[in-house]
Amino acid sequence: MHYDFETLVRRENVGSFKWDDMKLKNPNIKDGIVPFSVADMELKNAPEIINGLKDYLDQSILGYTGATAGYYDSVIGWMEKRHGFTPKKEWIVETAGVVPGLGQMVSAFTQPEDAVMIMTPVYYPFRMAVETNKRKLVTTELINTGDSYEIDFEDFEAKAKEKEVKLLILCSPHNPVGRVWTEAELLKMTEICLDNEVFIISDEIHFDLILPGYQHVSMGTFEEKYLDNCVICTAPSKTFNLAGFQTSNHFISNEKMRGKITASRGYHSLNLMGYKACEIAYTKCGDWLDELLILLDTNRAYIEAFMLANLPEIKVYPLQGTYLQWMDFRGLGMEYRELEKFMQQKAQLFLDEGYIFGEGGKGFERINIACPTRVIKEAMERLLQAVNQYKKRR
Question: What is the pairing mode between strands 136-141 and 115-120?
Answer without folding.
Answer: parallel
